[in-house]
Amino acid sequence: MTALPEPQVRDSCTSLGLMLLVVLFIGLARAIARRQLLRPAAHAFILEFLATFQLCCCTHELLLLSEQDPAHPTWTLTLIYFFSLVHGLTLVGASSNPCSLMMQMMLGGMTPEMGTLRFLAQLVSAMCSRYCMRALWSLGLTQYHFSERSFACQNPIHSDLSKAVITEAICSFIFHTAVLHFQEVRAKLRIHLLAALITFLAYAGGSLTGALFNPALALSLHFMCFDEAFLRFFTVYWLAPSLGILLMILMFSFFLPWLHNHQTSSKKD
After folding, report:
1. Which strand (E) or helix (H) includes residue 161?
2. 198-to-9, 48, 50, 85 alpha-carbon distances in Å
3. Where do transmembrane segments lie in this chain (predicted)?
4. pLDDT in tens, 162-196
């Protein structure tokens, strides 16, 4: 890969510094929330809000970095892996993804009331992160920072509707299946495995839809696109990941229990 010009290196360092500052700020806010918020509902709402805010802000900035050298995605994929690790380490206890809430509720791991509360926190945070990044971009810290970016729809869908729906559904299915399977894996190893999987999915499906498989994140990144072509974007970024979750639940409910019982009986024999 060819070396980046000095201004691009400086802009990259500025963007990285901005993302790390967001992570540090959210970490401090989460620590304060744990100590000051005693009511479970308020505690859950604030932690989910902060986690979604961190994820969305960092992803906004990652999209800018990916534009600096689009012909060589290695740098972008490295950053996706690194920040997936950072999010996995710092956002423990929050999902930052409506599909994850849906999975937990359908499997009985979360009450509908708590799921609804966390879902509202994610939506509010997704929109707040968008306007926060717009304010930061207006400062012009790098050549890629300008507030007009938030007013334009930069269409991330580069395929027909059916392929886009299949891509998001499969990514959601694979990721949440892994989340469910890796629960018994040691935490340090699990975080690396999930970060590697996220990076792979971004590489495999990024050129088609961005491989977001996160409705709240999609709303924050592409809000103007939802405004211009609501049905298309709602189908790809909300219905398709939810469909992936439903398929995963059906698989675990009907196929894997039979497989588990079959394996158990084989061991006994």
Report:
1. helix 161-181
2. 25, 20, 21, 10
3. 15-33, 45-63, 75-94, 194-216, 236-259
4. 999 999 999 999 999 999 888 888 888 999 999 99
**How far apart, in whole angstroms, are the C-alpha atoms of residue 238 and residue 15?**
29
Tokens of 134: 């717009």
Tell how far CA 91 is from the center of its chain.
12
Sorted by where each starts, the structural domains of the chain and their CATH numbers stand as: 6-264 (1.20.1080.10)
pTM: 0.89
Of 225, 114, 101, 241, nearest in space to 166 by CA: 241
Residues with Cβ within 8 Å of 134's Cβ and at least 6 positions away in sequence, in order, are 147, 149, 150
User: For the segment 226-255, what is each residue's pLDDT rounded down to a tens digit?
Assistant: 877 889 999 999 999 999 999 988 887 776
**Strand stretches in the chain, DSSP E:** none
Tell me how many degrees the CA angle 238-193-184 measures, rounded to the nearest 5. Answer: 95
Q: Position 106: which residue type?
A: M
